[in-house]
Amino acid sequence: MVYEILNEKNMCNYYALGENPGVKTNIPVSKNKFEYLDDEAVIAKIIDFSEGDFVKTTFIIPEMHCSSCIWLLENLYKFDGGIVESKVDFLKKQLSLGFYKSKTSLRKVVELLTSIGYEPEINYETLEKKTAKSQSKSLYYKIGISGFVFANIMLLSFPEYLSINSSDLQLKRIFSYINVLLSLPVLFYCASGYFISAYKGLRKGILNIDFPISLGITALYMRSLFEIFFNSAPGYLDSFAGLIFLLTLGKLFQNKTYETLNFERNYKSYFPISVTVEKGKQEKVIPLSDLKTGDRIVIHNGELIPADSILFSGQGNIDYSFVTGESMPVVKAAGEMIYAGGRQIGKVIELEVMKDVSQGYLTSLWNNNFSPSEDNKLVSISNIVSKYFTAGILIIAVLAFLFWLPQSFNTAINAFISVLIVACPCALAMSTPFTLGNTLRIFGRNKFYLKNIFVIELLAKINHIIFDKTGTITEQRNSAIKYNGALLKPEEEACIKSLVRNSTHPLSIRIYNILKDTKIMEIENYKETIGEGISCYCAGKKIKIGSQAFVSNLNDGYANTALGELQEKVSSKVYLSIDGNVKGYYEVVNSYRKGLMQVLNSFGHKISFSLLSGDNDSEKTALSGIFPGETEMYFNQSPADKLTFVKKLQAEGFSTLMLGDGLNDAGALLQSDVGISVSEDTGGFSPACDAILDSGSFHNLAVFVDFSKTSVLIIKLSFFISFLYNLVGIYIAVQGKLSPLFAAVLMPLSSISVVVFATISTNFMAKYRGLK
């Protein structure tokens, strides 16, 4: 049945990927089995996202188990033209699908998956948690069976162990034959994974690590059978069973080790996104982890919607490019559903949360916007070495066998098997992800959140740091603000508060906070020009707030006089115009972040600095006293100017780190080798940045960069330990002095030693550097 479906769509290459690819089924799909998937209420609980004709959902596919499964599931569009994307997360057994409702349906998609043997696990609780069943069950069975057989073969071999004389030779043979029977499930079930993996690798022209292991297992087993049936000797079935037991035990350890690396992307409540909640007539900023179903949230221009919600008031202008890649904003009216991951473009809207916070969903979206750089040398080295490691081990094993064969067959076969088993690149492969994963966890505890382990390696190479000013090295909480200019009417102040309420810029937030007793009014035609200012119509008047050039369509004398009087003050000025007339300005006396001097001094002369600001140069004198004398400072910089500056530095050979507030620095953050968004009270969640730094941990910036370099050094030391272990192990093995059973003990120990070294080293160095 599966063949017919594949043949009809010209997809029979599927069968070229393995001897028994995919999942075979002869069970036709019942006509009414998935009828419930036509119910809109059920569909709403299952899907992740729906906008217009496009729908996204995620299924858990328990039957997914090999490369052929991945190939088939990622080519579903050939079966159903309505499916436009399908991506597999093999470790989690998850399939993410995107399809058009006008061409197919959720029911048809599920029926298609079931018809080819991949029925999704549709369970509301499972779908909410997005967790697959444990895949370690069969491994536990294999450990149990091989351990049972190992113990009993040792028990039944007591005539040999006790050196019973030849008069009991028949008894020894009986026990040897029983041992052969006991060993069969170990060979055909417990060791099957190694043979299957080696065979599939060979089919693709790849010598994976399971190939030499399979070769060693086969050689040991065949040698034991030869000894038992032709030489009346006991053979080495106890070593064989012990070898499989220890290998499967080591594999379980590796699986558990990689499962612990889930913390790499699991930020949960530590993720530094806050959200504005409206309670009564008060607006309060709370951590996203405290958000509950039914809460009323306020979303400003440019902010990400954190959970599936109903639009309560205002007009939604939702940019779903973060989810779908389509940048055209979608207009939403009151009462319509807005999905997590959308970004509001325009004036503020109020939403009522309908589902629990979709933080895991947002995190996956953020991570998917990262592409590993070609400069990730550690990962490349690990992959290259692992690639040629197996071929090298096979050559060494054969040479050792040929060297000892003229002298002693037993020594030759022992050397051959021991070399194949004792040498393992697993420790080499594990050192990089485990060290960097542990570093991510340490950074997360200190409120520094990286998008991916690759960022750590890039961070270790930084030699030039670019600072944005407002919201990055200045603190909005401690900055004083006052208004200078013509007296404003209550209605005008209400319009100003209503305008700045829509913006997430630090200066807008400061202005909003000083207008405490002012009411909120309805505004129209809200517009935010990045790097310049914001504007709207309120009570029939045109209100503009921002730079002098932005607001002063009519350059009256007042604005020019104000500039001349205050040029030397350490402040930022936000100008106000009503109907084209500049009324005055809000003067914000900046307070620089605690620890800024400490950060600059900690880097010393190892790293050079630049400062880019969209404000005027009124603070240049004060900043010159803080930054080193050779620091380049540029003011009145537009987002395009910042981007151009980063490109210029990179062209000169610098490895750049950009620190911004994530608002008007997106281009520069994305272009720089590492882009860090500094988050204070507002949502700093930006797909453009590689990391988010909580403002409370700003003083640790130099520590984070130095610790990244330390992590890279730990990886290099792990490489050395792994190479040293393999050299010593192979040296002893080629001399024929290492038994296969002892080699099986040493093999998982190499992985354990590297993991223990990486964990202890990173934790010790973190504590030494003051990272809790």
Strand content bin: 15-25%
Question: What's the shape?
Answer: elongated
What is the CATH C level class of the largest domain, in words? Alpha Beta
How is the biggest beta sheet arranged? 7 strands, mixed
Strand order of the largest sheet: 14-26-25-24-15-22-23
Count the DSSP helices. Answer: 27
Under CATH, the homologous superfamily of the largest domain reads HAD superfamily/HAD-like
Q: Residue share in helices?
A: 40-55%
Mean pLDDT: 77
CATH topology of the largest domain: Rossmann fold
* CATH architecture type of the largest domain: 3-Layer(aba) Sandwich
Instruction: State the end-to-end distance.
Output: 58 Å
Low-confidence stretches: 124-134, 261-272, 554-569
**Radius of gyration computed on alpha carbons:** 33 Å
Structural summary, described in words:
By secondary structure, this protein is an alpha+beta fold. The protein has 5 domains: 128 residues, Alpha-Beta Plaits (2-Layer Sandwich); 119 residues; 86 residues, Calcium-transporting ATPase, cytoplasmic transduction domain A (Distorted Sandwich); 151 residues, HAD superfamily/HAD-like (Rossmann fold, 3-Layer(aba) Sandwich); 117 residues, Calcium-transporting ATPase, cytoplasmic domain N. Helix content is 45%, strand content 19%. It is built from 27 helices and 26 strands. The strands form 5 sheets. The protein has a 7-stranded mixed beta sheet. The longest helix is centred in the C-terminal third of the chain and has 34 residues. The radius of gyration is 33 Å and the shape is elongated. About 5% of the residues have low confidence.
